[in-house]
Amino acid sequence: MAFMDFLCNHPISSIVIVMDSMFKVGFGVKVDSLHQSSEEWTSFTKAFDDCKMEQGPSSDNSNEKIVQEVKEATKLKDDTSFNEFVEHVDEETLDKMQYLHAALSETLRLYPPVPADAKFCFSDDTLPDGFSVRGGDQVCYTPYAMGRLDFLWGDDAKFFRPERWLDENGFFRPENPFKFSAFQGGPRICLGKDFAYRQMKIFSAIMLGRFVFKLSDKKKPINYKTMLTLQIDGGLHLLAFHRLL
Ligand code: HEM
């Protein structure tokens, strides 16, 4: 059975999760072994109850804000051709796209491509917070649930709100990787993180700058495909329209 299926269909108590250690080591939040009566436990199980891919409430016109930023950064004019536009998306302009960087991070928070990641212990060990693990134990951290915990992200955890990543001057403010765990944290953090952001920014700036996307069938339910990586069952079918500048 695929891992996400397992996570979605089994009572949370049947999964060994040493999340408190992760938090204490990297983030400093005291979770106290996630007692089942605790608020954090409720929050955690609630995050997994929402294993359906519903489009949550989002911040006002984030799409339009991205397009505006792309326009300003690339100094787009109404008559700029597609090729000229692509040539303008360089290192310097990408660095100016702070809101886009925030919007991508917000997407990865809610929809991390690696929704759950498990490790096996080779031998008995004690984690830095004193939690004991034994050889053969499986330890799992779950970016999908962690990205939706209100005690980590606030009451608006379910909202798509890129602004949460920006400081008062509109500059991107990175989060601790043990809170935003989509790329893992520590010595084995994703080596391609910066490269991935660069690719995502280039792709989104070009696609959103030149096209408007609409769901081809708004009524069709959107579900996850249960895989090790988070995928959409059957793909997400969109209609693309030229954006009128
Ligand atoms: C949004 C895109 C990406 C996400 C969310 C992501 C996420 C992750 C995660 C969670 C891990 C840890 C896996 C584990 O140890 O269990 C990882 C490892 C790694 N990633 Fe990525 N990744 C992304 C893109 C990339 C790209 C584009 C590259 C290469 C250009 C890359 C290269 C690597 C490498 C080499 C490791 C292994 C690091 C190590 O074990 O020391 N990743 N990534």
From TrEMBL:
Annotated positions binding heme: 190
Known cofactor(s): heme
A single GO BP: isoquinoline alkaloid biosynthetic process
Keyword Iron: yes
Pfam families, A to Z: p450
Keywords, ordered alphabetically: Heme, Iron, Metal-binding, Oxidoreductase
N-terminal signal peptide: none
Acyltransferase is among the record's keywords: no
GO MF term (any one): monooxygenase activity
PANTHER family on file: CYTOCHROME P450
Family stated for the protein in its record: Belongs to the cytochrome P450 family.
Protein name: Cytochrome P450
Organism per entry: Macleaya cordata
